[in-house]
Amino acid sequence: MIRDITLGQYYPGNSRIHRLDPRVKILATLLYIVALFVVKDFAGFIIAFAALEGVIIVSKVPRSFIWRGLKPVILIIAFTLIVNIFMIKGHAIWQMGFLHITREGLITAAFMGVRLVLLIIGSSMLTLTTRPIGLTDGIEELLTPFKKFGLPAHELAMMMTIALRFIPTLLEETDKIMKAQQARGADFESGNMLRRAKALVPILVPLFISAFRIAQDLAMAMEARCYGGNVRRTRMNAMKLEKRDLVASLLFLAFLAAIILQRILM
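Structure (tokenized):
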């Protein structure tokens, strides 16, 4: 299940989505997330799903790879569904003691489940189609206007990108530690959920040690290359908006207009 986490991973490709300016993709992802919280009925989710489906088709990222990223968060989605089903008051359709299922609870649970799925897939498409260096440059460019207020744009962009980039690395390290402990007789699969959680505690210590080691190696590598942050730093490839970026922006604005119009009319 650890290998199934796709957040922070980059899927190599040369599609139109891959070639878009990182700034366009970052802003589109942020506004897409906002749009998901603006939607208040399933008709809006149909529009959001259609837009996301179009991006997936154009990006040519395998669907199996995308849906695989949902496996690690199935428990979170299931917990959200259960809480909404049993906690929302309304017209009861089943009841046993203090437990009850209402029609409103089922509708709310389905609504929240769809929102979470679209949110996770939509967010993962950003990292799947954007190289880490492009993501760093895009975030830095978007934060540059805030430098006037003392915001360290480059440093923040670098930290955010490194954090995303090393999620797969730490997950791979966790998988290695678990396999090493299983070879020594550790059991992470038997027993109830509480016992499984306790069995994972011994993994945390070597994982933290490994994380600090990786961080130290990265810092030493950056110092050895005389990395100095944003001091007199130039780029080999300057970021410039192309015609395809304008077309993508117009299509996304059309999507936002459809979401807003649907909310007003409904």
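Residues 153-183 form the longest helix (31 residues). Strands lie at 92-96, 99-102.
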